[in-house]
Amino acid sequence: MNLRVFKKDIDFLTEDFLSDALISMGFAKDESKREKILDIINEAIDLRDDTYSKINHPESGNLKAYYRNTTEEFLKSLDALCEKLGEAIK
Fold this sequence. Notes:
Layout: H1 3-27, H2 31-56, H3 63-88
């Protein structure tokens, strides 16, 4: 996988999630829900930054396996944030 494409995918998925979170925040009437959504947004931004850091500074060894694991970890973490956002807006 091309790292440039992987970084673009990370940006796209993160921006899509943030868009959904901000829309949810706009519809949330309760201030506590808005705070929970804001915390989730901050987690998503941290996830993006951490993933970028892992990509830019890979561990030595099998790079292909390292990037595959990093991709899977990012997707699982983003999926968990989606579930967390769903619980926050109930």
